[in-house]
């Protein structure tokens, strides 16, 4: 559970957003809201535990384009959902299911943006990650354009990856912690196959990759389109991802570089050595990310259907 003092510190980082976001925003208008979200996420997790990785990806892809406004959910020609980087985003049906129950209980009250945020939070806890309170009160956006989607690929430099976060008001600890969500993620083999086959045209694997991982990925990708980004505990939210990076077992190139870049290697070491510290920093980073460019008050709208503007 986030302590009040931690949320207070974050208030001074994002004063406008946190002025209108608050923990328990729906306590009077829809007191069962968070319970409805939690129960449906638990049901889905019981069927498919990879839902944690899917919701983390959805949350990130939504917040880092136009802010946390659920613009990613819109079904329309040339919407964010149709952009290339969002082709692998999934679990839209779960968001629809949650929205339908919330509309039945409290019509036009709970935003789709808050549903994404709460569902992601609950899925992380189910995977063994931290359980925490997060402010709500976001409203849904009125714009969704594919041309706005400019998300980084797995070969981005560490400096480029970190700047993506610092441009949103976060720091290097936040950046590395959020990338640490790859502890439950999978990657498309096409995005890193050169690392174990023909790295940068050399005809050889990437020398920064553990030879045992090279062999393992060759076998995995010969039989599957995807591979786990944490080869140790792929369904558990823990710090094993960082331990793997320190053993040259990062799958994405940018992930592996985190362990050697002077800007991030110390952070990776701290997270690898202290699981509790990593989880605390992850909570801080998620609360910060959840406040990026949010709409509150009378801005935007509360969609009745998450796939369509009212």
From TrEMBL:
EC number: 1.11.1.7
GO cellular component terms, semicolon-separated: extracellular region
Sites where the protein binds Ca(2+) 1: 62, 65, 67, 69, 71, 80
Catalysed reactions, as listed in the record: 2 a phenolic donor + H2O2 = 2 a phenolic radical donor + 2 H2O
Signal peptide start and end residues: 1-19
Cofactor(s) of this protein: heme b; Ca(2+)
Amino-acid positions noted as binding Ca(2+) 2 in the UniProt annotation, renumbered to this chain: 183, 230, 233, 238
Leading EC class: oxidoreductase
Residue numbers marked as site, Transition state stabilizer: 57
Protein family: Belongs to the peroxidase family. Classical plant (class III) peroxidase subfamily.
Protein name: Peroxidase
Organism, as annotated: Brassica oleracea var. oleracea
